[in-house]
Every structure is written in C-alpha cells, then in structure tokens.
Write a structure and sequence with these properties.
This protein is of the alpha/beta class. Helix content is about 45%, strand content about 20%. The protein has a domain at about 10-35 and about 100-210: P-loop containing nucleotide triphosphate hydrolases (Rossmann fold), CATH 3.40.50. Bound molecules: adenosine-5'-diphosphate and guanosine-5'-monophosphate (5GP). The site of adenosine-5'-diphosphate (ADP) has 13 residues, from α1 and α5.
Length: about 210
C-alpha cells in the first residue's frame, strides 16, 4: 500500500508526553513497510523498556566512541542524556526496502534535514491542551514530580520549533491522530502534499504557549 516511492523517512517530533512514541509504535505495528529507527541513548531504561527494542541503551563512553567514529547521522543532548541515530540503522532499513519512522527531537530533525539525498517528511505532534499533557506525563512518570516539571518547563521551547515541520497534528483521540498521520504518509508516498489550515494551527500554538 505504501510502496510507490522507495525509502522515505518520516520524522515525528513533539514536546515530551504528547504521544510520539505511542504513535510511532502504532504506525509500525500496523504497517509492515514502515520500520522504526531504534536510537542509541545514554538514558537508563524505564521499567517497561527493552534494550534493542525501545532503544539501544549504552554507556556515555560507548556513545562518545560512536561520535568519534562518525557513526551517527545525528545526535543531541536532551534532559542530561544523549540520543542519536546510527547511520547503519537507517541504511540497513532503507536497503531492506522499508520506509523509516523516527521519534526524535527538533535538534535531530534539523541535522537530518541538512543531509543530501534523503527523502524526509517531518510531522510535529501537539497535545490538545496543557492539562492533558501534564496528566499524560503524570501517568508515565508516577511519583517523579521533578522530572515532570523539567519536561513541562521545556514545553514552550520545544513547541517554538513547530514551523520547521511539514505537518502539525494534534494528538487528542489517539485513533483519529493515527489516521491523520497515516493519511499524510500514504499521500506523501504518492508524492502528494496535504494542505493544512495554518490559521487553526497558529491559534492552537498561541493557546498552548500563552
Ligand atoms: P512522547 O513519546 O511524546 O514523550 P508517549 O507516547 O510516551 O509520549 O505518551 C505519553 C503518555 O501519554 C503515555 O503514557 C501514553 O500511553 C499516553 N498517550 C499518548 N497518546 C495518548 C492519547 N491520544 N490519549 C491518551 N493517552 C495518550
Ligand atoms: P525519552 O527519553 O522520553 O524516550 O525521549 C526524550 C526525547 O529524545 C524525545 O523528544 C525523543 O523524541 C528524543 N529522541 C529519541 N531518540 C532520539 C535520537 O536518536 N535523536 C534525537 N535527536 N532525539 C531523540
């Protein structure tokens, strides 16, 4: 269904807790032509996370070796940890004929966009409102109030990068948001861009960052 153009890269970014990990997983689970680029990180695994599946969890020493070896397409420091996309991870998936999904931040997106000959579509996910975002973070990080505040404090800075993305999608109802993203992917695979109502998006950004 998705294979009219070979080897596209779809990047999902968002403020922490808006739902990009949930959405990338749902997209990959339901569309076998799309595979997630599994990042390397120096962050410690969360209780439900599996090494090699959610991330490749590595030491800072190992991460620095990979930087020195020029092994990353992109990497960034986020909330005191390093995160990066290995060239090998992406190239292997593309050579298998897959399209690649990325759950990375705006810093990584900026770096990937500078690389020649990659076919990249960027999607920014927003929460429906701040209260909902806080509740989602509370849910994910029960008992870690400080961690939640750190993420909420970064919200405005992260959202300020929304206009560097091709598309902005609000993750209110998960299935509706999934459908919108899939529509974008299917359309972009056919070389067709979808028009978005920029005034609606600007109003939402204003409301979220006031
Ligand atoms: P991110 O990767 O953007 O930091 P996650 O995908 O981890 O965010 O989602 C944060 C939390 O919100 C998770 O507990 C997830 O299950 C939940 N969540 C994500 N999308 C929705 C949604 N549309 N409705 C309700 N809960 C959601
Ligand atoms: P978390 O620790 O919540 O899984 O992710 C924190 C942030 O790191 C999220 O914004 C996520 O998108 C971003 N991230 C995950 N992997 C990468 C990566 O390989 N590169 C970059 N630049 N960001 C990443």
């Amino acid at each position: 269904m998705l294979t009219e153009t070979k080897g596209m890269m779809f990047i999902l970014s968002s403020p922490s807790g808006a739902g990009k990990t949930t959405l990338t997983k749902k997209i990959a689970e339901n569309n076998k032509d799309l595979a997630i680029s599994i990042s390397h990180t120096t962050r410690k695994p969360r209780p439900n996370e599996v090494n090699g599946q959610d991330y490749n969890f590595v030491s800072l020493e190992k991460f620095n070796d990979l930087i020195r070896g020029n092994d990353f397409y992109e990497y960034a420091k986020i909330f005191d940890n390093y995160y990066g996309t290995l060239k090998k991870t992406v190239n292997d998936l593309l050579s298998e004929g897959k399209d690649v999904l990325f759950d990375i931040d705006w810093q990584g997106t900026q770096q990937l966009k500078k690389i020649d000959n990659l076919s990249i579509v960027t999607i920014f996910i927003l929460p429906p409102d701040i209260k909902v975002l806080r509740n989602r973070l509370l849910n994910r990080h029960k008992g870690h109030e400080q961690l939640i505040e750190e993420r909420m404090n970064k919200f405005n800075e992260e959202v300020s990068h929304w206009n560097e993305y091709n598309y902005v999608v609000i993750n209110d109802d998960l299935n509706k948001c999934y459908d919108k993203i899939l529509k974008i992917i299917v359309s972009e695979k056919k070389g067709i861009k979808i028009n978005q109502d920029s005034s609606e998006i600007k109003n939402k950004i204003k409301e979220l960052t006031k």
